Amino acid sequence: MEKIPVVQVHTPAFVKDGKFHVRLIEGRFQNLRRLTTWPLITLFFGLVWVQFDGNPWLLFSFEQRRILLFGSALSWHDLPLLAGLMIAGACLLFFMAVAWGRVWCGFACPQSIWTWLFIRIEDVTEGRASIRARHDRKGLTPELVLRRVTKHLLWSLLSLITAITFTGYFIPVREIADSLITLQMSPALAGWLIIMSGLTYANAGLVREKICLHACPYSRFQGVMFDSDTRTVSYDINRGEPRAQKHDRHPQSGDCVDCGLCVQVCPAGIDIRNGLQAACIDCAACIDACDLVMERLDKPAGLIRFASETELSGEKPRFMRPRLMGYGFVLIFAVAAVLYGFTATTHLLVEVRRDRHALFIQLDETTFCNTYRVKVENFAEADMIQVSVTGNQNYELFGPSQIDLNESGAAWLPYRVCATDINHPRSELAFNFRGHGVETTKKTTFLAAAPPAGPQGN
């Protein structure tokens, strides 16, 4: 049996005590990453802060027991739709992982997005990576202290805004902002915001790549998702080796000049030339850096590129393969199921409960009454609901024939239903509710005394 070769991974020279400074780079993949992340950031803040008809675009309202989504209201009974969305998202994640590796992590994961934002703030306040590294070697100065205090204040402000926005998905964000400005926030809400702000600050500012490597399970099971045709950020060892710096090059040298720029721009602090590693998030920063060097050396780009193991070995890669097709089929099915579910959402939620204290009330020998409690919750545009009863008996309804949903809300309302000349102790009864564009029926039972037995024959 062939043994797995052991590769000695060397720590980059600029890494000191596990700390490194990420160098920002420009390039086509970084532009693509921004085209992906900025709409997601805008969506994250816009869903909460932008209002439609006095309500945010998205709100999980526990007080109203409904989900507000772009001006429409969904009931808690529609929560399986959100579970369906999560399943569809997971299928999309698996599909992308099999096809292109961890591109979600590098281009759309919130942890990566906020890490890049914090790195950008660090670059603005303390200077580029080389300057920050030089400051670390020289020690603190008054100017550096001021710059670092500014950096941490901006990190804290962004963390607080992030925590407020996230909490705004469950509590109206403008109420949170008002309570924060007027210093009338409840201790529970204040504690929650402090915890969320602290976690954001630590994850994106201090821990960063360690979250991706040690806390996120995706980096661990990616090896199960990948196959030999998965296109990930890869170093073409056949073209690049043996590497040699510009002044030491000879005719047998590879294209890699060992400049180390691919390592300096990596937010995970790894050397992609050592092969596929669990910490790699496929952000493609090393591709942009290497392509820039190749352009300056008048060599073709693509020494580091998205490539599969099959492609690097010189064979023709396959895109359509059973595992990828399977995930694609499940993804299409999940999306179709969610779209169908949104066409059958709950517009009128009705609950009818019998009075458990008395099975029935007998007014005379032939008249019986049952009492019920009714609750109606509206998730459409109807304000008034008409109430009626039908069944296999001649029923008479006592109680409000109209329900003003603006006044009653989701309160329980008492009703009495009476019938005469009952021929069966248990009959079917249906409450009918009708409003503007909505209609529903709730079935229940009507109980009465058993009719007297007829005369027996001799």
From TrEMBL:
Pfam families: Fer4_18, FixG_C. The chain crosses the membrane at residues 35-52, 79-100, 153-171, 183-202, 324-343. The keyword Protein biosynthesis does not apply. Keywords: 4Fe-4S, Electron transport, Iron, Iron-sulfur, Membrane, Metal-binding, Transmembrane, Transmembrane helix, Transport. PROSITE patterns: 4FE4S_FER_1 (PS00198), 4FE4S_FER_2 (PS51379). Residues 245-275 form the 4Fe-4S ferredoxin-type domain. Gene3D superfamilies: 3.30.70.20, Immunoglobulins. This is Cytochrome c oxidase accessory protein FixG. It comes from Marinobacterium sediminicola.
